[in-house]
Structures are given as C-alpha cells and as structure tokens.
Amino acid sequence: MKNCQQFVFCVFALALFGASGLITAQPQPSKTTTKTGRPATAVGKQDLGAVRPSNLTLPFFAVSAFEGSEVVGRVVVNDLELADVARAEDESAAVQQAREKDRAANSVNFEGWTAAGVHYVLRGDLTSGNAIAELYDIASNRRLFGKTYNGIRSGEERRLGHQIADDVIAALTSRTGIFSSYICALVETGNGNKELVIMEPDGHGSRQLTDEQALLATPAWGKNGAEIYFTSYRDGNPDLIGVTLRGQRFEISRRPGLNTSPSWNEALQRLAVTLSKDGNSEIYTMTRDGRDLVRLTQDPNADTAADWSPDGSQIVFTSDRGGTPQIYVMDAHGSTATRISTGKYCDSPVWSPDGTKIAYVTREGGEFHILVHDVATGEVVQITRGQGTNRDPSWAPDSRHIVFESNWGGRKGLYIMDIGVRVPHCIAQGPYSAPCWGPLFGR
Known about the structure:
Blueprint: E1 13-16, E2 24-27, E3 31-33, E4 39-41, E5 55-57, H1 70-82, E6 86-88, H2 93-105, H3 110-115, E7 120-127, E8 130-137, E9 142-150, H4 157-173, E10 183-190, E11 193-199, E12 207-208, E13 216-221, E14 227-232, E15 239-244, E16 249-253, E17 259-265, E18 270-275, E19 282-286, E20 294-295, E21 303-308, E22 314-319, E23 326-331, E24 338-339, E25 346-351, E26 357-364, E27 367-374, E28 380-382, E29 390-395, E30 401-406, E31 413-418, E32 425-429, E33 432-437
Parallel strand pairs: 5-7
Antiparallel strand pairs: 1-5, 1-6, 2-9, 3-4, 7-8, 8-9, 10-11, 10-33, 11-12, 13-14, 14-15, 15-16, 17-18, 18-19, 19-20, 21-22, 22-23, 23-24, 25-26, 26-27, 27-28, 29-30, 30-31, 31-32
C-alpha cells in the first residue's frame, strides 16, 4: 500500500470494485450538514448492485490528534482491497485538491470529490480512547453511516481499522465484514516440525501459540472462538490437544492411534473427530474434554475429515468407501450418507457458516484445486484452476471469502479469495499450511 501523507485529515481515494471486544461501536445521530448547507440524510445498507461502480474515498483520522493515526486508514484501505470491495486509486491533482479543501473546512467537500471522480468518503477522529467514523456518498450528498468506537486502548489501532473496514463493507454490500477475526495456521519450524500461529486476516500480527517441537496437523477453532484444537505428535502418538488464545495447553483425547480432524459445533457443544482406536479410521463425536464418545460411522474403509453443518444436523466428511476418497454428507447420527463429489480424488470438506455451501479440494493433473458445492442445488463450481496447488480451504465469517494454502504463481503461502471474484490475495508468504478462519470477535 502507498504511504499515507500526514494531514489534519488524511484521505485515501478508492475505486469501488464490486469486534466488538474492547472496542464497542455505536451509531451517531443520522443528520449532518454538508459544506453546501444541505442536510445529508443517513441511509440504510445498500447492496453492491444498487451502488454504482465508482470510487470509494476513505479519509481517516486527524494525525495531529494521536501518534500513528495513519495506521487505521491504511488498514481500512488494505482490508477493502483484500475483500475485493474496493481498490486504491492513484493520486491525482484533483484528489489532492479535494483533500486540502476538506482539511481547510474540516468537513467533506462534495464538489471537490465529485470533480476528482470519487464517490465515497470516510472521515474520522480518535481522541482519548474514543473514535468517530463517518462514511459519505459523495454523488448523492448522503451520509451512509456515522459511528463511535469506545474503549480503544493503546496499540489497538489496527483492530480499530479492521472494525471500521467491516462496517464499511456492511454499509456498501449488506454483507458481514470479515476482518474483526483471526486466522490460525501451521508453520514449519524445521526438522519436520510445525507450530500453531494466529494472525489477523490481512496476515499481520502473527503470533505463535504452541511450543510442541513436533509435527502438528488439522487445527480447528473451538469453544467461543477462544480455543484451537489440533493434532500433536509430541509424545509419539497423534493426540488431540487444545490451546487457548493465551497459550494455555490442555489435552482432549490421547486414545491409541489417530486422534485428529477436530470440528467444533458451538450449538451442540460437541466435537466431531477421527479416531482409529479400533484399527480403522472412523468418525466419532465427543465433548470438549474427550468424554461421552459416540461412534457415527461403521465402514471397513477410512472415514475422516468430518465437519459439522452450522446447525449441527449434518456432517460432511471424506471416505474411500467407493474406492477413492470422496465427499459424503450424513445426518448427525451417522445415517443416510450421500456422496456429493464426482472427481477422481476429493478431500478436505468444510461447511460455510451460513450452511449453504461446502468447499473441498479435488486432485487434477497432480495438482489440488478448490471446488464449491451448493447445498440446495447440488451445483459445483471450481474456483481455482491452472495456478499451482491449492489446499485446505476454510470459510470466512461471511460465507463468501475463503482462506487456503497455495503456491499460486510459485509463491507459497496463505491466500484469501472472494469466491465470486476469484482473485487470490496472498496474506502470508512462507511455509504455512492448514489455515482455519475463526469467528468474528464476540460471536
């Protein structure tokens, strides 16, 4: 991203493409007055189809009011680009003039931004731990939203930027934002070992949670979005382990053989897992502490990689009962398993948070690609093709974006993608694998 110039109000020009926690947001009064003296009326959420393809401008906060305020604006701009909601526009004389007029008048100059070809402007301020942000539609002289964000602590500027970006996304698309969350993943640390890390959805703030010094596999988010479950070979056996976001480790299942592929269902407060304690990989459910074990599959072939539907009524999983690994859906009691995939080799199914889609991978010509299955219609769409190997998809909270491991164009790392736009964005380059997108803060 371009460096932000420091003005009393710093502005970014964008072209429209297509957390609660400690920070709490509240709407501001809906009526304000424009520079021309006309009232700007707040409007409700809009769908992208109702918003003309144009330019989105994001002025952010008064740099003179606090150290490093440009960070918030940069985060907002970058998030909108990663989400394929907006893209940064090159600087122009008209943009610079509009910015200077805003700074001089301490208000949005609608005429100036119209002349610059910009249609949406975000203004804000941060003082004494409280922020104000307002999004304006320049062409119609309307304020789309005005919010205050309270309880902002020192060092939380990036988190504030993510929350504002989510609010902008919601205002422009009527969709849930995705950046007030975390992504977990595995990273290679040498000697065949891996450790668990979490990061912001733009790849920043990576933090290692484990010190297993062993091979790890299949991480998944757990209870209240505050725990992560994974398989660890630290003690020689593939055991199922949990860790809190503060790094507190606890054991879930240490049964002989595989203890792997956890999937947590918040509604049921149960895990679906793969165990091989009886000699064959089968799918079971259990409580978070490994108790109340219930076996779901009874097949001589391997059943693994289970993932709950959001309402807990069904489970999608991988099985080679048909001769090759394929994707099946069964009810939560283990009956009526139905195959939904048709490729030669399919694996790693994940259910979208809204329950309407299942993503999984298929092997094609020695490479893995990601497909999306529509639960209602059965339609399958391949969303990656011809750009290396793409593995381990995981849904964002909006059920529209995914994160996945890829070596797209020879650049290995973690990527996020809007499944409609299908443009990959690398958020973390390096030996990462098995990403899993967590829920929004406070949900």
